[in-house]
TrEMBL record:
Species annotation: Streptomyces sparsogenes DSM 40356
Protein name: Transcriptional regulator
Keywords on record: Copper, Cytoplasm, DNA-binding, Metal-binding, Repressor, Transcription, Transcription regulation
Biased composition (Low complexity): 20-31
Record has Chaperone as a keyword: no
Length: 126
């Protein structure tokens, strides 16, 4: 099973996000040969597991009644780690997917640029 950006951006607490709140991510074209992150997949998974550990650490801190400021410091570190990962993934998308569309030209390049612009806007809102 593959996950999409929308899957991984689901709200905390297991809440379901309304389909009407955001448009669905565009499906990859049929001739799509791979993702920009494919070469770094193992490194990305390792990094995400580390971030997952940070989040689990936050849960433990709350369970153990750790001082609020100490928890907030760890929240900040976890947030920065996710932002850094997102920027790296965005760079790989631009270098691979958008660049490939630019070579092909036509409507695909416009669609990829619009898609990347929307992703950047979402990142800036967080």
């Amino acid at each position: 099973m593959t996950t999409t950006a929308a899957d991984s951006a689901a709200p905390a607490g297991g809440e379901e996000r309304s389909q009407a709140s955001e448009p669905a991510a565009a499906a990859a074209p049929a001739e799509h040969t791979g993702h920009g992150y494919a070469k770094q997949k193992d490194q990305h998974l390792k990094r995400l597991r580390r971030i997952e550990g940070q989040i689990r650490g936050l849960q433990r801190m709350v369970e153990e009644d750790v001082y609020c400021i100490d928890i907030l410091t760890q929240v900040s570190a976890s947030t920065k780690a996710l932002q850094s990962f997102a920027l790296q993934l965005l760079e790989e998308h631009l270098r691979h997917c958008v660049a490939a569309a630019a070579v092909k030209g036509g409507e695909e390049v416009d669609a990829k640029v619009a898609e990347a612009t929307a992703a950047i806007a979402r990142l800036l809102r967080t």
